[in-house]
Design brief:
The complex is a heterodimer. Chain A is of the alpha/beta class. Chain A has 2 domains: about 1-40 and about 175-395, no CATH class; about 45-160, abc type-2 transporter like domain (abc type-2 transporter like fold). Chain A contains 15 helices and 5 strands. A 4-stranded mixed sheet of chain A has the order 2-1-3-4, with helices on both faces. In chain A, strand 1 (about 45-50), helix 3 (about 55-65) and strand 2 (about 70-75) form a beta-alpha-beta unit. Chain A is elongated and about 105 Å long. The mean pLDDT of chain A is about 90. By secondary structure, chain B is an alpha/beta fold. Chain B folds into 2 domains: about 1-40 and about 180-380; about 50-165, abc type-2 transporter like fold, CATH 3.40.1710. Chain B has 16 helices and 5 strands. Chain B has helices at about 1-15, 20-40, 60-70, 85-90, 105-110, 125-155, 160-165, 185-215, 215-225, 230-255, 265-290, 295-310, 325-330, 335-345, 355-365, 370-380; strands spanning about 50-55, 75-80, 95-100, 115-120, 170-175. A 4-stranded mixed sheet of chain B has the order 2-1-3-4, sandwiched between helices. In chain B, helix 8 (about 185-215) packs antiparallel against helix 12 and helix 11 (about 265-290) packs across helix 12. The radius of gyration of chain B is 29 Å and the shape is elongated. The model of chain B has no long low-confidence stretch (mean pLDDT about 90). Classes of the chains: A alpha/beta, B alpha/beta. At the A-B interface, helix 2, helix 5, strand 4, helix 6 and helix 7 of A face helix 2, helix 4, strand 4, helix 6 and helix 7 of B. Strand 4 of chain A pairs parallel with strand 5 (about 170-175) of chain B.
C-alpha cells in the first residue's frame, strides 16, 4: 500500500502529461474562464432608433432608453431599411421603431405601440434591449397616468401609478451575472474532468508499458493468482489514495481561492464544502478508475473525455434547468459524479445551503462512490486474472 | 495524383482499423447532434417549479396565484407558510423562486393604499431565473392593472379608455430569426459545430501524433513520393471526407428535419460547414506542428477546442469581454463559423456581407500549405518520448 502510494505520487510528478491535467489545467483553466466572464453582464448594447413620430413623447422615450445601463443609442435611421442595414453591418444589435402616430395617440389617451426588433445571435442582446425598452415604457406610463389623473397628495399618486406595487429580489446572484452563474459549476467540472483525464492517462501509460515489457520478454510472472490479485488491489488503493492526496490542495485552490480572486459569490460554510469534497473526490476517483479500463493507450482518454465537458454541464441542470431535462437524459445524468457534485457545490457555495439541505446529492455521491468502488475492484480483479492466465500461458510455452 | 490517392487510402485504412477513430469521428459527434437537439427540444423550459407564500388568503390573492400558475414557464409546486421556509426550499433547489403576498394586500388594494407584493428569483440558474422573473413581473404588472381597472370601470371608463390609461405605451418585441426564443436554435447551432471542431482538432493532432509515436512517419513520406505536402494533404483529405459527411448530416438534420431557421438555404450552410471543417483541420495541423508530441498536441487541441465555446461569443457576447480577449477571439475558427451562421442562416444576409470571416476561415484552412518543411521534420526527426 505505502509503496504503491509513493510510487504513484512519484509518477504523477515525473510525467508531464499527467502533471498537465493534475496541476497545470486546474491552476490555469479557472483563471481563463473567470477572466472571460468577469464582466458578468453586457452593457451598452448598441441600438438604432427609427423615430417617425418626432414628438416630445418619442424623444423622451429615446432618452430614457439611452439612459439605461443595458443599451446605448448609437444611431438614428430614417426608416427600417436603414436600421436593418446598420444591423447587417453589425454596428447595432437591434432597433426601436416609434410609429408616426405615437405622440398623437398618447395625447388622445389611447394605447400607442413601440416596435422593438432585436438580434437573436445572443440571448443577452435580446434581454438587454427588451428590458431597457420595457423599463423606459413603464416609467413613462407612470408619468402619463399621473398627468391625467386629478390627484393631490403623494399617497394618491402612488396608488394611481401602481395600485399594487411590487419588489423584485434577485437571490444569490444580485446582478444576474454570467460569471456568478457559470463559474461555480465550471470549477467543479474542471476537477471532475482533470481527474478523469489524469487517471485515464496514467492507466493508459501502464497498459502501454506492460505491452512493451511483454514485447521485450520482460514480463514478470506471479507465483499464484491470489498474490497477483492482492498486488493489483494494493496498487489500486495506493493509486487512488495518491490521486486524492494531490487533489486536496488542488480543490482547495480551485474552490476557495479562485472565487475570491474574481469576487464571486461565496456564502457557503467552508466545513460544509470540505465535507462535500470527501464523497465527491472518492466518487470521482473510483469513477475515473472504472472509466480508465476502457483505454489501452496513453492518449486515448483525451479523445474520450474532453468533449463531454459541455454535455456534462447541461446534464448537471445548471445551464439548462434540470426540471426541463427529458426523462432519459435526467436518468442518464445520474451516472456522473459531476451532476451531484456541481449541484451540491452550487447550492452550498452560491446559495448558502447547509450540508443537510443538499442531503440528496450528498447521499447520491456516497452511493456513487460505493458503486464505482465495487466496479473498479471488480474490473481490476477481472483484468488481473485475465493477465495472469496470459502470463501462465506464456510461462508454460516459452517458445511462443 | 496516384501517390496522393495512395496516402488517402492508407489513411482511411488506418482510421478504420482503430476504435479511437470510430468513436471520435462517428459515434461521439453524432451522439452530440442528438444530445443537444433533444435536451432542449422544448425550446424553452416549461412549468418550472416556484413556491408561493400567500399570507393574505383572500379570493383576490388566490386568483393571483391561479393566474400565476397559468403562465407558460411557471408551475406552482408548493405553498409555504413564510418567506424563510420558501428561501430554504430555494436553497435546497426544490424551487427556482417564489412569490410573496403579504397579509392585508387585498384590504390595502381596495382602500387604495398601494400594497407591496414581492417575488424572489434564484439567479444561480440564469435561464430559469430570467424566464421566471419575466413571468412574475408580468403577473405583478397585470395584478396592478387589474386593480386599477376595477377603479376605472367603477368610474365609468370604457375598455379602450381604461387600457389607454393603464398602459399608455406598449412594447411589441420582435426577436428577429428566432421569434419563439427557442434555446435549441440559439445554442445547438453553435455548440454542435463547436464539438465537431473540437474533435477535428483532436483527431488531426492524434493521427499525426500516431505517426510519430509508431515511427511510421518515414513510411508515410515514402508513400507520398517523398513530398511532405502531399503526405499532409493526403491525410487531411481522408479526414475531410468523413468530417464533411458528419457536417452534412448535421446540416440536413438541423435545417432539413428539425427546420431550424436557415434563410440562406441548405447549400450555403453546407458550404459554411465545409469551410469550418477545413479551418479546424488547418488549426489542428498547426497544433501538432507546434507541439510535436501526441499528448502535448492533444492538450493544446483540447484547450483551444474547449475555450472556443466561451470565446466564440455564442452565450456571453464578445463585446462584453476584456479587449485582449476580443482580439484573441479571432484565433478561434468557431468564432468565425458562428458569425457566418448568424449572418447567413439566422439573419439571411448574403454571405458577401460577412466576408472578413470567410477570409479568416480560409486563412486557417491554408495554414498546412505553409508547413511542409516542418511536417517533414516532425515526421522524420522527432522520436516519441514516453
Amino acid at each position: 500500500m505505502n509503496k504503491s502510494f509513493a510510487r504513484e505520487l512519484y509518477l504523477i510528478f515525473h510525467d508531464e502529461g499527467i502533471l498537465i491535467f493534475f496541476i497545470v489545467v486546474p491552476l490555469l483553466y479557472p483563471l481563463i474562464y473567470s477572466f472571460i466572464y468577469t464582466d458578468e453582464v453586457v452593457r451598452d448594447v448598441p441600438v438604432c432608433v427609427v423615430d417617425e413620430s418626432h414628438s416630445v413623447e418619442s424623444r423622451k422615450f429615446i432618452r430614457l432608453v439611452d439612459a439605461t445601463a443595458d443599451v446605448k443609442v448609437v444611431a438614428y435611421a430614417s426608416d427600417q431599411h436603414e436600421a436593418q442595414k446598420l444591423r447587417r453591418e453589425r454596428k447595432t444589435y437591434g432597433y426601436i421603431c416609434i410609429p408616426s402616430d405615437f405622440g398623437d395617440l398618447i395625447t388622445h389617451g389611447e394605447q400607442a405601440h413601440i416596435g422593438v426588433f432585436t438580434d437573436m445571435s445572443g440571448m443577452l442582446y435580446y434581454k438587454a434591449i427588451v428590458m431597457a425598452s420595457t423599463n423606459a415604457s413603464l416609467e413613462m406610463n407612470a408619468d402619463i397616468k399621473l398627468s391625467r389623473s386629478e390627484t393631490t397628495t403623494a399617497e394618491q399618486d402612488k396608488a394611481t401609478v401602481s395600485p399594487i406595487r411590487y419588489d423584485e429580489v434577485a437571490l444569490f446572484n444580485p446582478q444576474g451575472g454570467f460569471a456568478a452563474f457559470l463559474i461555480p459549476a465550471v470549477l467543479m467540472l474542471i476537477l471532475h474532468q482533470t481527474m478523469l483525464l489524469g487517471v485515464g492517462m496514467s492507466a493508459g501509460t501502464r497498459r502501454e508499458q506492460r505491452q512493451q515489457r511483454i514485447a521485450a520478454g520482460m514480463h514478470e510472472v506471479h507465483r499464484s493468482l491470489f498474490k497477483a490479485l492482492r498486488d493489483a488491489l494494493h496498487r489500486t488503493w495506493g493509486r487512488c489514495f495518491a490521486y486524492i492526496v494531490v487533489f486536496i490542495p488542488v480543490s482547495a485552490y480551485v474552490l476557495s481561492v479562485v472565487p475570491r480572486i474574481f469576487n464571486l459569490v461565496q456564502i457557503g460554510s467552508f466545513p460544509d464544502v470540505a465535507m462535500l469534497m470527501l464523497p465527491f473526490l472518492l466518487a470521482v476517483v473510483f469513477f475515473a478508475e472504472t472509466i480508465s479500463h476502457l483505454v489501452t493507450r496513453r492518449e486515448t482518454i483525451i479523445l474520450l473525455i474532453v468533449f463531454t465537458s459541455v454535455p456534462l454541464l447541461f446534464l448537471s441542470g445548471v445551464s439548462w434547468p434540470g426540471c426541463a431535462l427529458p426523462p432519459f437524459w435526467h436518468h442518464f445524468a445520474m451516472f456522473f459524479p459531476s451532476t451531484f457534485g456541481i449541484n451540491a457545490f452550487v447550492k452550498i457555495n452560491t446559495c448558502g445551503a447547509s450540508l443537510a439541505e443538499v442531503r440528496t446529492e450528498y447521499i447520491s455521491l456516497w452511493i456513487q462512490a460505493g458503486a464505482y468502488f465495487v466496479m473498479c475492484v471488480y474490473l481490476t480483479l477481472w483484468e488481473k486474472s485475465r493477465e495472469y492466465r496470459q502470463e501462465i500461458a506464456w510461462f508454460e510455452e516459452p517458445d511462443l | 495524383m496516384r501517390t496522393l490517392l495512395h496516402v488517402v487510402l492508407r489513411e482511411l485504412y488506418r482510421i478504420s482499423s482503430k476504435r479511437e477513430y470510430w468513436f471520435s469521428m462517428l459515434v461521439a459527434p453524432l451522439v452530440c447532434v442528438f444530445f443537444f437537439t433533444s435536451i432542449m427540444d422544448e425550446g424553452l423550459p416549461h412549468d418550472m417549479p416556484i413556491g408561493i407564500v400567500d399570507q393574505d388568503c383572500t379570493p383576490t390573492s388566490r386568483n393571483l396565484v391561479r393566474n400565476l400558475n397559468s403562465f407558460e414557464h411557471i408551475k406552482i409546486a408548493e405553498a409555504y407558510p413564510n418567506v424563510t421556509e420558501a428561501r430554504k426550499a430555494t436553497q435546497r433547489g426544490d424551487i427556482y423562486g417564489f412569490y410573496f403576498i403579504p397579509k392585508g394586500t387585498t384590504k390595502k388594494a381596495n382602500r387604495q393604499e398601494s400594497p407591496v407584493v414581492s417575488f424572489y428569483t434564484n439567479y444561480t440558474f440564469i435561464v430559469a431565473g430570467s424566464l421566471l422573473y419575466k413571468d412574475m413581473r408580468t403577473m405583478s404588472e397585470l395584478a396592478s392593472g387589474a386593480a386599477g381597472r376595477k377603479v376605472l370601470y367603477a368610474r365609468g371608463a370604457s375598455e379602450k379608455g381604461a387600457l389607454g390609461f393603464l398602459q399608455p405605451i406598449v412594447i411589441d418585441s420582435h426577436a428577429i430569426g428566432n421569434p419563439t426564443l427557442n434555446y435549441s436554435i440559439y445554442l445547438s447551432n453553435t455548440l454542435i459545430p463547436g464539438v465537431l471542431m473540437l474533435f477535428i482538432f483532436m483527431v488531426t493532432v492524434y493521427s499525426m501524433g500516431a505517426e510519430i509515436k509508431e515511427s511510421t512517419g518515414e513510411a508515410l513520406l515514402r508513400a507520398a513520393g517523398d513530398n511532405p505536402l502531399r503526405a499532409l494533404y493526403g491525410k487531411l483529405i481522408a479526414h475531410a471526407l468523413i468530417w464533411i459527411g458528419i457536417g452534412a448530416i448535421y446540416v440536413f438534420y438541423l435545417y432539413g428535419v428539425l427546420l431550424y431557421p436557415c434563410y440562406c438555404g441548405i447549400p450555403t450552410m453546407l458550404g459554411v460547414m465545409a469551410l469550418g471543417v477545413f479551418a479546424a483541420q488547418g488549426m489542428g495541423t498547426l497544433m501538432i506542428c507546434a507541439l510535436p508530441s501526441p499528448r502535448l498536441g492533444l492538450s493544446f487541441a483540447s484547450l483551444w477546442g474547449v475555450i472556443s465555446f466561451s470565446i466564440s461569443g455564442m452565450s456571453f457576447p464578445v463585446m462584453a469581454m476584456h479587449p485582449i480577449l476580443q482580439s484573441l477571439a479571432w484565433l478561434f475558427p468557431l468564432r468565425h463559423y458562428f458569425l457566418l451562421y448568424v449572418n447567413c442562416a439566422l439573419d439571411g444576409f448574403p454571405i458577401i456581407n460577412a466576408w472578413p470571416y470567410v477570409i479568416a476561415l480560409l486563412a486557417f484552412a491554408l495554414l498546412p500549405a505553409l508547413l511542409p518543411t516542418r511536417f517533414r521534420n516532425i515526421m522524420t526527426k522527432i522520436a516519441y518520448k514516453q
